[in-house]
Each structure stands twice: as structure tokens, then as C-alpha cells.
Amino acid sequence: MQRGFSRFLGVDLGGGKGKNTAVARLALDDAGGVRVEQVTARAGKNGTTSPLYDRELLDYLNKWRDGAVLAIDAPLTLTACVRCREPVCPGLDACVDPTTVWFRTVGDAMLAEGRVRNGKPLSTPYTQRASEVWLHRRMGVLPRETLGQGMGPLTARARHLVRALEAHFRLNENLIEVYPKATVQLLFSPQVAKGYKRDAPAYETRQRILHALEDLHFGPSTGLQREQCFANDHCFDALICAYTAFLWARDGWQMPTEHREIWHADGWIWHPPARSS
Questions:
Q1: What residues contact residue 97 under an 8 Å CB cut-off, 6+ apart?
Q2: Of 121, 157, 168, 213, which is least surrounded by CB within 10 A?
């Protein structure tokens, strides 16, 4: 382990008033892999009481925080324009915020590669973060935009959790933002990443993915939870979040040195390195 964690928490975050949030908890085993301790979309003893609303989710994460790194699949930072504290906006073309400058000089060039311009803006720094452009154009994974369609409530909840957890969890130290689709695509293939969510063979695809992760183990007491991961994409994504945290810690992933100051300011989505051909 290049980073000294023994427990790995994953959260597939849903809306604060909905029932789609799920958590996973992994622990190091003696063979250098991880064993599943729990995967659930419910709070309380044996996961039988209520959905993971804010209070229940925070109680769970604080209960298991010792020696843990937490991975959440929702935006943990806000966009440059939302973070801005200038009294008067100078406009995107004149803005001197480093992230906005990055969008004008680097991000738009990435987004323009191989595309025919039709007059539409290539980027919108009030809805996008730089890491989302990088993930799309350099890693081939199309992410959700931080404040894109339908993402506002989820991003707001994620930011609330960051604030509520900051006494014990610090961003990019023991709290990381991840994207399960990116993990699956970069470990396997775009076809697998496309098929594990809601396509017709999703159950079988999730089975194949988990069977292929040879350093991830379910014990006899978690057999039913394994079946739940096959059947429920939220539980599956929570497990992939936790497994991504394990890989991050074990292999000591680092942000790209190129534009690193932007990743620190604007946020970074942690993902496996690209597979060598």
C-alpha cells in the first residue's frame, strides 16, 4: 500500500430526498486484496431501517472513518464561475481566473479536436470543470457535467457532505471524487462500461466485472450482498467507488503534472491510468 489506509468506503450518491444512495465498505485482507464487509442502500442494523438520507449517511461514514479513505461519485468541488467572488463579472473572454483561462487556452482546444465548429460554445466554465474535459478528451470517458442537466441537486448534496465531513475527511487526502463508469471503462473497455448499467445484459455484465476483480473478495456472510450488487446498479456503483479508493491507495495514483495547479483549484476525478496497448 503506497497510502496507508486499511478501510475503503464508497458512496453512490443519490438525491437527498430519494432512495438511491448506496454505500460499500471494504477492508484489507491478508493477501493484499480487499474483502467486502458491507454493501447496502439502507441504514441501521443489517441495513433494514431507512434509506441513506443525510443524517443516516453521515452517521455511517463517521462510524467507519478510522483508517478509511472515502470515495464519492459526485462532484466534490464547484465550477470556477460558481466559486468566483469578483464583485462584477468581466465576462468569460476577459476573466483572469486561472481555471477560466485554462478553458479558453487549453480546454477549448481539446474540445475542438476533430470537431466541426457550428457556432456553439465549446465549453461553459459555469457548468463544467477542467477535469471533466480532461477525462473526456484525454481518457475517452464522457463524464457528467458538474452543473449539467439534472446534476444541480446532486452537486449541492455532495458539497454539503464535504462540509459536514471536513472535521475528519479532507479532499484528496482521505476523501476523493471518483466516477464508476471511468473505473470500469479504463479497467475493462468502453463496451463493458456501456453495458453494466441499464442495458439488457447489465446483470450478467456486472457479474463478469466482479468475477474479474481477483483482489476483491466476498465472504460467506456477504453472499447476499454480492447478489444485490449484481441486481442493483446503485449498490454495484458504491462497490466500484470503494474499489477505486483501494486502487488509489494501493498504487499511489497521482494527478497529472501537466496543469496540476488547475486540478488542485478546480477539482480532480480520480480514475485508473490508461491501459497500455
A1: 80, 84
A2: 121
Distance CA 99, CA 129 (A): 8
95-132 pLDDT, tens digit per residue, is 999 999 999 999 999 999 877 767 789 999 999 999 99
Query: Which residue pairs, CB below 8 angstroms and at least 24 apart, start in 38-43?
Result: 38/222, 38/225, 39/222, 39/225, 39/226, 39/228, 39/229, 39/235, 39/238, 39/239, 40/225, 40/228, 40/235, 41/232, 41/234, 41/235, 41/238
User: Which CATH class for the 7-78+148-270 domain?
Assistant: alpha beta
Domain ranges of the chain: 7-78+148-270, 86-129
Angle between helices 202-212 and 223-231 (to 10 degrees): 130
Q: In this predicted model, which residue has the larger pLDDT, 224 or 259?
A: 259
